[in-house]
Design brief:
Strand order of the largest sheet: 8-7-6-9-10-11-12
Shape: elongated
Strand content: 15-25%
Mean pLDDT: 97
Distance between the termini: 27 Å
Number of helices: 9
Largest sheet: 7 strands, parallel
Helix content: 25-40%
Low-confidence stretches: none
Length: 310
């Protein structure tokens, strides 16, 4: 029986032919996540893309599903038992890392404050600024995104320390790799604390009021993993009292952030609406496609798939 490959990826010209060259004996069906039918879902043996989780319970023939995103928690409990499940982890790491660096430098140069002044037509020197040259950047989550961000910071002269649950060896982007158990000891040493952790029971409110208090008074906090990692109320309280130089958050909990949430009004805090990743850069879209193609080759050859989930 030939494979029925349901492809929901945002493909460009010539890329359908690339998939068909890899699996010439398969039935290839192309659709969009917004228009895919339940009949197509039910017939698929292989699926790429971002179908709505509630539709996946009808995937009666599915053997392998690769989501186009790094995060997979939205599909918990929605997939048929026993299927292969893979992610596109790493596809948007450059995009997120560049966004994190942009936010970091903007806060170091007080650009959120200067933008407020520009809108108010106020010409005012806000005083000292910061550089990460010679500073220590502590990255919670030394995976694809954390490593790309750390590499950019190294290029600007910072020392980088990556934290992981388990350390099995050095990682090129980090001067040191330590375990998450050392977080409390390392927080007081960091000039920048960057959060690139996924949502899990272990990461919820990991950065709470007590840990914010351990940070340097003039440290910068960057958050680009999942909003649940940070206790936002504790951050508001600390920064309103003068703790921390600034912060840049691309993720919040909940999303969207309510209009009346006090985070909106914290000085030198930059908020963006979870736009660091996604398909906003062509390099991200193409890498996602290439990951699906490589795993398709592996799947047809009976080889282990990359980015297995679970």
């Amino acid at each position: 029986m030939s494979e029925y490959i349901l492809n929901l990826l945002p493909l460009h010209e010539g890329e359908r032919e690339e998939f068909e060259a890899i699996a010439p004996d398969a039935v290839h069906v192309y659709a969009r996540s917004s228009t895919v039918t339940s009949e197509q879902i039910a017939a698929a043996t292989v699926m790429f893309g971002w179908p709505r989780p509630e539709m996946m319970k009808g995937a009666a023939s599915l053997k392998w599903f690769q989501t186009m995103w790094a995060g997979t928690e939205e599909y918990a409990g929605s997939l048929p038992d026993g299927i292969l499940f893979t992610s596109s982890s790493g596809s948007n790491s450059r995009s997120v890392a560049e966004h994190m660096l942009t936010g970091l430098l903007a806060v170091c140069r007080r650009l959120p404050t200067y933008l407020d002044s520009q809108r108010s037509h106020v010409w005012k020197d806000e005083g000292p600024m910061k550089t990460i040259l010679g500073g220590t950047v502590l990255v919670l989550g030394a995976g694809h995104v954390g490593s790309d961000f750390a590499r950019l910071c190294q290029g600007l002269g910072a020392k980088t320390i990556g934290l992981k649950r388990t350390v099995t060896g050095p990682i090129a982007a980090f001067d040191e790799v330590r375990t998450m158990d050392e977080l409390d000891a390392l927080l007081p040493l960091a000039d920048v604390v960057a959060l690139t952790l996924p949502h899990s029971p272990q990461t919820v409110r990991l950065i709470n009021g007590e840990r914010i208090a351990r940070m340097k008074d003039d440290a910068v906090l960057i958050s680009a993993g999942r909003g649940s990692v940070l206790d936002q109320d504790a951050l508001v309280e600390a920064m309103t009292a003068g703790k921390l130089w600034g912060a840049a958050l691309d993720v919040t909990d909940p999303e969207p952030l309510p209009e009346d949430h006090p985070l909106w009004d914290v000085p030198n805090l930059l908020l963006t609406p979870h736009v660091a990743g996604g398909m906003r850069l062509e390099i991200t879209r193409r890498k996602c496609v290439e990951m699906a193609q490589e795993n398709l080759r592996r799947y047809l050859a009976g080889e282990p798939l990359v980015n297995r989930v679970g």
